[in-house]
Please model this.
Amino acid sequence: MNNAAPKAIAVNKAVNDVIRSDRGRLMAGLVSRLGDFQLAEDALQDATISALGHWGRSGIPDNPTAWLMKASFNKGIARIRKAKREGQKGHDLSLIIEDEDPMYAQEEIPDERLRLIFTCCHPALEEKSRIALTLRTVCNLNTREIADAFLDTETTMGQRLSRSKAKIKSKGIGFVVPEPAQWGERLNTVLSTLHLIFTTGYVSGDASSRNLCLEGMFLMRLLDQLQSQDAEIEGALALMLLTQSRKTARVSSEGATVPISEQDHALWDAELLQEGQALLARAVQRRNPGAFQIKAAIADCHMETPEPDWAQMLLLYQSLWRFEPTPVVALNWAVVLSETGQPELALQKLGELKDALSEFQPWHAANASVLRKLNRSEKASEAYAEAISRAPTEADRLFLRGKLKQLYN
Amino acid sequence: MKYMLLIYNNPTEEPTYGTPEFDAMMGGFFAANEKMQADGVLAGGEGLQGIETATSLRIKSGKVETMDGPFAETREHLGGYYVVDVPDLDAALKYAALLPSANFGTIEVRPLMDYNPAG
Model:
């Protein structure tokens, strides 16, 4: 009886499952031992292909991940040897071979993903490259899927990825967790990168083939697990959970954006909300405040029932300003001022931000809303028109058009 | 890995001689120097005279052209450099952050080319 085809499908699936769940672990271990991102990726690719043959003949090994790690490492060594023979500049082989352990396949693989995340999110790389590299290396997205998320072509994204891997090597970015003196600043870059992955998915409504919100949450949960009891990591994860809990409520049945204060609370995901709030409470108890904890606390105040706690938000923005004195923080602060009965002051603050933010859509939307509060309909409708023309999504355009209509009702 | 820390400063933003800020800057450089030496990473370093002393030269169609002034007129000038021998970029950045010029200028950190034809 010939069951080659079903077997091939089953083995393929098994290989894919291991790669999907353990690619980050495998890449971390390989980069650590081979000392090169591209080589690690090529070696894993070679090993995946040979796994299909071996596993097809002899069955799936007891510890498939360890099998792949060992096979990849051997493939990596083979690639280095080949490069040496062909006279290319290669690694110091003697050093690597001494490190080779034949028992490796039976051992627990050390989890080196924390180093991997810090390397992919090094501030010496461009922001977009950090995101792309993290998604490729830790989350196992392919080049096509990453390109989709950025509306880039596959070729452009492929070039960006190989440039970044080359840069890690040429700049001498170490495969290490930063030392205490650099920890805070470097962690902030990591958290911002992961948060950007999440918001990229959130803003686009996740039209791409892979759900970037879920990838962002997966990464942040992983980071929280690898480096537990860190208040800022907990704060950043809480912020994601609180945001995600509103996912269904943020768009109306007509497809328009619904601001938090007007959302149907019944549509909030209670489980995510509770988890986020509990995490935030735990983070705050550590008495080591930071920007992400404050932002999560602001999100929490926004979701206070029956009414958002604007007064508390005013205090929180004051604290946030100490960590992030940026025009965007000032903009959100001004919005809160207008909600706490100080629309005149808010308008003045927004005016001061004009030079910095006049190309930024939310500045126009905030202006429109404050002007409407002050009953300056003509100015408000101009601001709405500007905000509508710059709106990033159809849902935002619909929401703003609705507000514009209300002006004259 | 060896890195050059290139120190770019805008002279108008540097502290002036005789002020407490100037003394603090000198002290900062001294401390950075000592730290690099104590850590055994210092592989060289020099300060440069001002750009008004610079002479630039290039050869155009076989003829040497000599000009008064720096290669490019920019706001920030190359004022000096250190070479540090450290394990990775993070370590190089740590020493770069010790240089007082980072507070009013820019430190460009670049790996030295390791040319080894034998591999």
Notes: DSSP finds 20 helices and no strands in chain A. Chain A touches chain B through 17 residues (CB under 8 Å). The longest helix of chain A spans residues 4-34.
